[in-house]
Amino acid sequence: MTMAGASEWRNPTPPRLPRTVEPAELPAHALAANTAREGLAYVAMDMFDGPAAEYAELSGCTVARCSWSAMRLDHLTVADCALDTCDLSNAQLMDSSLSRVELAGCRITGMTVANSAVRDVTVSECRGRQSSFRFSRLRNVRFVNCVLSGADFTQCRFDDVVFEDCELDGAQFSGAKVVRARFRHCVLTGVGGVASLAGATVSETDLASLSGTLAAALGIAVEKG
């Protein structure tokens, strides 16, 4: 790991939303398996037709106060979408693609986005304890002010990924591949697989919470007093 420097970190490209979005109506605009929805505004509704919507596509849409909780959404494609105050707890997104997506104020506890492509995504003010991004490829992604305690990033690829003001205590990074990653003002106590974060940038203020884990990973015994 290196100390935080002055190099530029590009913000994720925001969603390319249409100037106007049509209010979604049910059941006509419900998202089901092998369906595609574009340019719609889903607000406080049950937007899915059943407990699963595999191979579905959502593009150019806004989604507010909707529940994706416990949905099976494998092979989902989400592009140019903004999700605000939604419940994605325990949602399963295996082998999916997220590009130019914003999640703000969402509950993502236990959400699984595994073996997926995640690019130009901003996750802010979200609660994501025990969430999982195992084996996913994250490029130009920013997590801001999120609770990610116990999150699983096993064998993820980090390419221009920033964690800022996040709680990452107990998170797992075993086997991760860091091209470029930054941790700034984060809680890093007890993270697993810390050796896999070689090459990442960490702010000086975060070293205190990381020092014990680094010492253990290096086999260094720390004496008190």
Distance between the termini: 27 Å
**Residue runs with pLDDT of under 50 for 5 or more positions:** none
Sum up the overall morphology in one term: elongated
The quaternary state of the protein chains shown equals single chain
Q: How is this structure best summarized?
A:
By secondary structure, the chain is mainly beta.
Please describe the topology of this protein.
Layout: E1 2-3, E2 22-23, E3 36-38, E4 40-43, E5 57-59, E6 62-64, E7 77-84, E8 97-104, E9 117-124, E10 137-144, E11 157-164, E12 177-184, E13 201-202, H1 207-217
Parallel strand pairs: 1-13, 2-4, 3-5, 4-6, 5-7, 6-7, 7-8, 8-9, 9-10, 10-11, 11-12, 12-13
Write a structural description:
The chain is mainly beta. The protein is built from 1 helix and 13 strands; from the N terminus they run E-E-E-E-E-E-E-E-E-E-E-E-E-H. Strands 1, 2, 3, 4, 5, 6, 7, 8, 9, 10, 11, 12 and 13 form a 13-stranded parallel beta sheet that branches.
Name some characteristics of this structure.
225 residues; mainly beta; 13-stranded parallel β-sheet; 1 helix; 30% strand
